[in-house]
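Translate structure to sequence.
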């Protein structure tokens, strides 16, 4: 009687290959979904924060924290003065002064002054003193939501937040936040602290020349002085006062 030989079990070579492909696909999908979720969280949180600060005062900014840390690390005295002041209590002269000094087309542009950017680019490419073309809207977006720096990544985020605050806040709120958050002296932030520090008076009662004095130091408020100023700052004050007349009556709904 013939004995039956056991039939060998068929083995399919490469059964593990589909598993590895599946594994590869799953890792790719995980990475893809990670970035999608991160993007959604970023957009959600950024829009929510812009909406929040449309109604809530901005009591501190990243720059304020950075300055405190810098002074601590350098063993310098930490001076910090900042109080929120509604725009109704901030002198119209100061509002006109920063428009005349920093952003002449603030009331009319959509967040960006492309002519000013082009002039800045041409000036810097010719090796002249570095100048910026940032609008008040861009400066506000940077001060409130971002860090200092000149990388393309940060500039891209600045543009993104500039669009958001133009759409959600509007011009009057942008000016209010700007005048309450910018650095106006060494450890001095916002119109309330600046008028008290430089002129010993409240923010609603500035004369055109006093307002021009604060606006004149904004390029470097830790170096320049609004009172007892250098001849350079005095010339800037006079120019700003002249240009304030051209600003005329401020209408934040003029766009």
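Result:
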């Amino acid at each position: 009687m013939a004995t039956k030989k056991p039939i060998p079990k068929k083995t399919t070579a490469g059964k593990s290959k589909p598993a590895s492909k599946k594994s590869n696909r799953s890792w790719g999908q995980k990475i893809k979904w990670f970035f999608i979720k991160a993007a959604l969280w970023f957009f959600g949180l950024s829009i929510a924060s812009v909406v929040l600060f449309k109604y809530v005062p901005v009591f501190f900014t990243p720059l304020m924290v950075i300055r405190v840390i810098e002074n601590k690390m350098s063993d310098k005295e930490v001076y910090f003065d900042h109080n929120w002041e509604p725009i109704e209590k901030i002198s119209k002269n100061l509002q006109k002064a920063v428009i005349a000094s920093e952003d002449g087309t603030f009331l009319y542009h959509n967040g960006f002054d492309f002519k000013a950017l082009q002039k800045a680019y041409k000036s810097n490419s010719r090796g002249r003193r570095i100048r910026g073309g940032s609008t008040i809207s861009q400066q506000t977006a940077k001060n409130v939501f971002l860090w200092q720096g000149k990388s393309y990544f940060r500039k891209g985020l600045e543009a993104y937040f500039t669009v958001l605050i133009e759409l959600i806040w509007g011009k009057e709120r942008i000016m209010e936040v700007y005048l309450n958050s910018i650095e106006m002296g060494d450890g001095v932030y916002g119109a309330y602290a600046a008028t008290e520090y430089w002129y010993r008076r409240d923010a609603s009662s500035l004369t055109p020349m006093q307002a021009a004095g604060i606006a004149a130091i904004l390029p470097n408020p830790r170096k320049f002085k609004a009172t007892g100023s250098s001849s350079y700052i005095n010339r800037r004050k006079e120019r700003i006062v002249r240009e304030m007349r051209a600003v005329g009556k401020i209408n934040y709904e003029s766009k």
